[in-house]
Amino acid sequence: MLKKPLIILLSALTLAACSSDKEAGKKPAKEEAAPVANEDVENVMKFQSPLTGEEMKEESTDRAVAVMVNNHPKARPQSGLSKADIVYEVLAEGDVTRFLAIFQSRQPDKVGPVRSARDYYIDLAKGYDSLYIAHGYSPDAKAMLESGEIDHLNGIRYDGTLFKRADFRKAPHNSYISFENIQKGANENGFSMENPPEPLRFASKDAAVDGKEAESVMISYFNNPLFDVVYEYNRDEGKYERYSNGEQTVDYETEDPVLLENILIAEAPHKIIDSAGRRDIDLESGGNAYLLQDGKLREVKWENTDGRILPYEDGKQVPLRKGATWINIIPDSPGLSGSVSYQQ
């Protein structure tokens, strides 16, 4: 798809520019909010989704729910991702990525396949005060969950009750949970579901977007095409479509596509910590990043702000476009990093 790349090294991330080819209870907001790089930012509206900025018919009072979603090829297509407000895509063991899908403005009937917890996914879920949903855990994640760091429901305890096994897939790629059962599990455990997350910052609709024209962007993990990610900008929709290994990311039941307004690709230090290949990922220190909005690619920095990975430029937070956001965390170390390429 991407032809004759000109490679430019930027930190540990490879950025290749190709020639044009069409075929190829918390209330908003904190008094001491971080400065924003674009002054043309709308104030938080009375009825606005806190995580997408989109207008809502009534005030949102729902707590965010963060679900670990399997991204193994045998788990595709997944259920529920098209209704997520925010999705983090992060490496687990080996060259396999998993998703942390955060739902607040919309609730799919069911989500899955659900996969096991890791400590850094828990940290990301805490950034939105989420109810955390997983099926299984690593030793470090288990210790965090058992210490009460975050409200959670886990398939290890609720397999066959709150979590259901699909008969069209084999374990560990067949665990699903419905939002009805998420609410049921929250009630049984006394978890409040009526505390919405603090809102993100959003640009006004007519605010200009800086950056290089980039109609198509590819992320490669370890040169493994099974986990290649391509974002194609659909100008008619004004949104990005997502593809894995050449297949569009859609919902298993409805076939609704994942459509995105914001994509943040963030470099972070990764380190293997045990014989199983589990990782320690530094999500605190910040680093280089790329922000995709309105068909343009912009070089920025990322910072961890109250547990949230957000784009910054010249020390000021860059506002998001109103809509859904996908965040790809990639290694920054030579020999370990994924690569990013784009075409105009």
From TrEMBL:
SUPFAM superfamilies: YerB-like. InterPro entries: DUF3048_C, DUF3048_N, YerB-like_sf. Residues 51-192, 226-327 form the DUF3048 domain. It comes from the Bacteria. This is Lipoprotein YerB. It comes from [Bacillus] enclensis.
